[in-house]
Structure formats: structure tokens, C-alpha cells
Amino acid sequence: MAPGGEEDGGLAAAAPLLAAAGEMRRRRCGEGCPGCRLEEANKASAGVPYLNFFYIWVVCLAAALPIQSLFPYLYFMIRDLKVAKEEQDIGFYAGFVGATYFLGRTISAVPWGMFADKYGRKPCIVISILSVVVFNTLFGLSTTYWMAIVTRGLLGLLCGILGPIKAYASEVCRKEHQALGISLVTSSRAIALVIGPAIGGFLAQPAQKYPNLFSEESIFGRFPYFLPCFVISVLAAGSCVACIWLPETLHFHNDEKVEAIDELEAQAGDSNLEAVKAKESRGESTKNLLKNWQLMSAVILYCVFSLHDTAYLEIFSLWAVSSRKFRGLSLTSQDVGTVLAISGFGVLVYQLAIYPFLAKYLGPIKPFRPAAVLSILLLATYPFMANLHGLELKILINIASLLKNMFAATITIACNILQNTAVTQEQRGVANGISVTLMSMFKAVAPAAAGILFSWAQKHISGLFLPGDQILFLILNMVSIIGLVLTFKPFFSLPNVMSRS
User: What is the reported pLDDT for 494?
Assistant: First the structure.
């Protein structure tokens, strides 16, 4: 027999098997699997799925608005609920209101990921948006501190969109568009930084700000923080309509039939890496995901910088509206809303127009460390802004806030890409659930710790080796320094897909 004859004969014998496997796969795609239909549609079209991306962006926006909108008025809401005995204690109580949302999300993130992996991404998204409509509305009607705590906690518990939507964004498109899809998830949070604080800052206490439109006897006068929550709930209800056109990305197959097809393809010499990964991932457990250091190192990074970003937002909002006697900026809720809205709009432009080019030419990882270093240097200048006044203060605080959020967005997008490339599709729901659980634990700690630290700093403005406000931002910077250290070996492991590219 000629050299290679046996191999050629094997290939010839394998050809009918390969054709049979292909036919079975095509038949399987025709049996009503929404994931297969979407996959075939993506194979047929190389273009960007703009419509699907738009729907993702809308529902992410609706879910993110309640998180961002309360920061401009939270200080005043806690003051009006009369739970703080002293002005310096307002930050202490405000921190726990911010923390309860993330505590609820910590408890429910992995169950939501498992739900999304079993029943689909779309049902999870719909339930999450409905929870925003209900519990965000109730939060605006809070008359006691504990009602505010409970409604925020239930909102975090039942809004399980964050993990599944990241998996969804990476599945609804072709591989070359995944970075854009995940960046849109983040950009929706950026636009929430524009709309959310603006809604909260300008619509809170409407009877005081717009007495010609709202009377003290109206529902918006009796519940001064209801109007911004009501507007967000209406927007969330509208986004439920967009969910009608969301395609399901999860594959619903008969497991025995799938394994038979995969085995047939293996006999036919199919070297499709995704099929092999999919087969292996079906037997993969959450325990094995926790042993995936490429995933977990990215998750740890994400958690550390999430803690920093959440603590920063809490501290910045409280510091900006606090009195000059406590080395605050004495800004109004409208001023804070404007600053956060301007920086949010700038980040949106950055993510849509600038970041894709950075990712194309440098990759998602190279800008990571420079962004962290520049963020640390920028934050060190914040305490000295308390010495500024008027137009000079407004210009510099807007520039600083914009740059800070741009650096944070660069880091967040890189972390999300790292997490989703470290696992296969069948694992992404649970993997993102694990990520959201751990991240939410850090975010639950962040507002409470930031509020306690802020209250302590206001009580120790002088008498220590540094003023209290400088110690406050120094401790905040230490979190970023820890995160920066964790980007180096042996703490960090780059996914194989990226290390080969």
C-alpha cells in the first residue's frame, strides 16, 4: 500500500459520516432551537447586528438607571428621613442604602446565572426589567429609612440582568463583534451616568425647585424623591416592549442527541474547537469554573476595581454636596447631577468612538495598566479642589470626573472581555453569575465602607498627620494600587485565546 493510503482511505470513509453529521446538525437547527437559528443567521451575515445591539443597550440602560440616579439626592433623602442625629452621620446611613442593592444582587447572581443557562437569557432579562418597574417605584415612595433599605434590597435581589446580559452580548453576534457587544453593555451604564444623575439631580424635590409646576400638596410634594423614580420606572416599562424583539441565544437541544452528533463528528475527524469545547463544558461544574484561574484572575481584578469605582461614586457624591466647613464642595444636587451627567456623556463618546480604535490597535489589555496608573494620579488631586471656588472649580471638577470615568470604563471593558473569553458559551451564564456574585459582594461592602469612612473623615478634619479628606482619598487610591499589582504575574493569567493572538 502506498504511503498515506490508509490515511486517504480513512478520510474517504469518514466523508459519509461527516456529511451525515452535518445533515443531523442542520436538522437539529430546524427543530426550533433559537440559538441555532441565530447562529445560522450570524453565519449568513457578516455585518454588525445593530438592531440586536440596540435592544441590549436599551434594557441595560433601564436596569442601570436606578443604580446611578439616587446619588445626587441620597444625602438629602437621608437628611429628610431624619435617621441621622448629626450632620456628620448622614454619610454613615447613606452608605447602607447604597449597599443593600448590591447585597441583594450578591445573593441572587449565581441563581440568576443558572436560571439563564437553563431557561434562556430572555426570560431573565424580562423579569429583571419588571422588578425595576415595581421596586424602583416603591423606593421613591419611601417614608422611612427601613422602607428605603428593603425596597433597594429587593430591587437588587430580583434584577438579575447583569451577568446574563454580558453572556448575551457576546453570543448575539459573530466573534469579531464581541468586543463591541460587551462595550455596549458598558456604554449603557455610561449613558446611565448621563441620564440617571440628571434625572435624580433635577427631578428630586420638585416642589421646592419648580413650585410653579408642582405644589407641596401634590404626590410629588409629599414624596419629594418619587418623581425621578417614577420617570425611570416609566422608561423601564417602555424597555419591556423592546424585549419582544430580543432573540434568544441559548441552545435548547436533546442532550443525548447532541452527544451522539458530537461523537459522530469526532469519528469523522471534525476538528472544530468550539464543538469540542461545548462537549467538555456540558460536564463542567461550577466547582471546575472556580478552578479556572484564567477566569478567576479576571474576576478578582473586576471585583477590586468595582469596589473602587462604587466607593468613589459614593464618596464623590457625598463629598461634593457636603459643607465647606468639612472640606466639601458645597454643591447642590443639580450641580452633582450635572457633573455626573457631563462625565457620563463624555464616557459614552469615548466608548463608542475612541475605545474601539484603542482595542483594535492595542488590544483590550494594553490600555488597562496605564488607565489604572493615571486614575491613581488623578484621584490624588481631588482633596485640593476644596480650595477652589466658582467657575474654576466647576471646570476642573468636570474635567477630573470625566477623566476618572474614562479610566474606569477602560478597565471595566477589559475585565469583561477577559472573563467571557476564559470560558465557552455554555459556561458564560454561570461564569458571569459567579463574577456578578463576587463583584456584588465587593460593591455591597463599598458604599457602606465608603459612608463610614466619609463620616469618620468629616469628624477628623484636623488633628491627624493628614487632613481627614486627604486620608479619605488616599485610602480610596490604595484599592486601585492593589488592583494594579494584581495585573502582574503570578496573580494574573491571560486567557489562552488572547495569549495566542
Answer: 65
- Dump pLDDT digits (tens) for 231-247: 999 999 988 887 777 77
pLDDT digits (tens, 9 = 90+) for 318-327: 899 888 888 8
Q: Using 50, 70 and 90 to split pLDDT, how confident is the model at 463? A: low
Tell me, what DSSP letter sits at residue 143?
A: -
Hunting for cell 476595581 — which residue is that? Answer: 305
Q: What are phi and psi of 432, to 5 degrees?
A: -70, -30
| DSSP characters over 403-426 | HHHHHHHHHHHHHHHHHHHSS-HH
Cell of 490: 503570578
Instruction: Please give the Cα distance from 355 to 352 (Å, whole number).
Output: 7
Closest CA to 281 of 242, 257, 313, 255: 255
Cα separation, 187 vs 353, whole angstroms: 11
In order, the DSSP letters of 257-318 are HHHHHHHHHHHTT---HHHHHHHHHHT--HHHHHT-HHHHHHHHHHHHHHHHHHHHHHHHHH
DSSP string covering 71-136: HHHHHHHHHHTT--SSGGGHHHHHHHHHHHHHHHHHHHHHHHHHHHHHH-HHHHHHHHHHHHHHHH
